[in-house]
Amino acid sequence: MGQFSDDTILALSALFQGFEGAHGRYDIKRVNEKGKNEGKASTRKGPATPEVWGVHLAGTGPGLGIIPLLADNTVRWAVIDIDVIGIDLDALEKRCRVEGLPLVVCRSKSGGAHCFLFLKEPIPAERIVPLLESFAARLGYAGCEIFPKQTTRLNEDEDIGNWLNMPYFFAEKTSRYCIHDRDFLDLQQFLDFAEGMKQTEDQLTVSDVLPQEKDTLFASGPPCLQTLHAKGGFPDGTRNDGMYNVAVYLKKRFPDDWEDKMDDYNREMCRDGGYLKKEEINNTIKSARKKEYWYRCKKAPINAHCNSRVCAMREHGVGDSTPLLGLTRVNVEPPIWFFDVGGKRIKMSTKELMDQRLFRIRVADAGAVPPRLIPGPIFDEKVISAIANCKAQPVSEDATPKGQFLEVFHSFLMTKAKAMDLEQLLNAHVTQPYLDKEGVYWFKLRGLQQSLKLHDFEYPKNELTLWLREIGCTYDEKPHRFKTRSDKWESIRCWRYAMPREAEERDVPYLPIEQTTEF
Known about the structure:
- The protein is an alpha+beta fold.
- The chain has four domains: 6-207, HP0184-like (DNA primase, PRIM domain, Alpha-Beta Complex), CATH 3.90.920; 212-311; 325-393, no CATH class; 401-506, no CATH class.
- Helix content is 34%, strand content 19%.
- The protein has 19 helices and 20 strands.
- The protein has a four-stranded antiparallel β-sheet with strand order 2-1-3-8, with helices on one face. A four-stranded antiparallel β-sheet has the order 5-6-4-7, sandwiched between helices.
- A hairpin with a 5-residue loop joins strand 5 and strand 6 (113-124).
- 33% of the residues are buried.
- The model is unreliable at 503-519 (pLDDT under 50).
């Protein structure tokens, strides 16, 4: 186990300055059949201390994850996460240099690539995220994850953001190294290289200039077609699908005579492997004549160069909704959803998320430009895909309905105005609980419901009884018989609860289920 100086640890933590409200930890448990590392992820409150960084570098505990989005919605670093196991890192770094992209390429924990952008000063995330999406499209890895996943944080308690696993875990024998000029850099070499690659906002403005924006063949068209045109046209084996997308573009730009232009575009975009034959072009034209026509954004050759955020704003672009970016589900009841649309961080209910009409209204209410209406099945596909790949954001127990119930329940039991004995509970007007000599609380559900209502919490009876049984309350089917003060026998049916001694001493609600945070 190596030892790292305080200066080295501080330099690394400064390079990856992140949100101080929380950080991530990752314990690798196994490698799955695809070669991807799997394990247990958890989120901890508070900043990543030098001690936590030291454990990460030494490899003696969980790996460290940092949230790039700072409290003021700026970033000091961001990353393109290319989840392609076994990717050729050297070829990727060369491509970054050819494209003029100021990215630092590191191997991820599972053998993919993290392409880092380091900044000399904090820059708003809403400026950086679209930039990295553009970079990813130029590299041919459109649609991969970008960190930060959101550009604004609405609530630091509910919406802390997504964290990224840091490089140089177990630094002496790390598999999460940086590559530069075909060399694997050690930690100090990486720090020196990353420092030299830091960018100012003016430098990024130069990097953001896309040569294909001057493209006249695909003027105001999808960036993917412009990029492929700049690279020499459609690769062999993708020309039929490629020319279908050309037909869609021409139909948008030249609605009256688009068919006549297909031959010219065929010669321009299908140069190296030979032009499509006349019969193939005619079949493509026939397919594109249908009323419902859309770019085949998820298929080669355009999928690898898709920049949907830019495309959606182009006159002859995709013409459908921008994707749900950085979708996060906050685990409360009912759940809350956060995501980015048009550079705005938007909070939404499940009903609003699933209904395209309500979705567009909510986006407009948030001050963003609402996406265009698209066919229902396409909208459903986008939402389902976003939900399937979203991150679950845990919240503190007391922020959930069950946590709020437990707080009021505990307060209800601990009230000083208790019934003197079971006989008092026979009185319909008595709603306070009774504590017997054995430390068992006896109470009526109606009394608890009244207490909840006083605290502005009202829950269905079936939900309350379920929670009561989960925390150990019992309700006997047969009435309990007891002697009254006048030596008469009476029967009563009540809920009973024996509060654990440690919960009484702490004066906090007893939570029998261990609370863990997993992604």
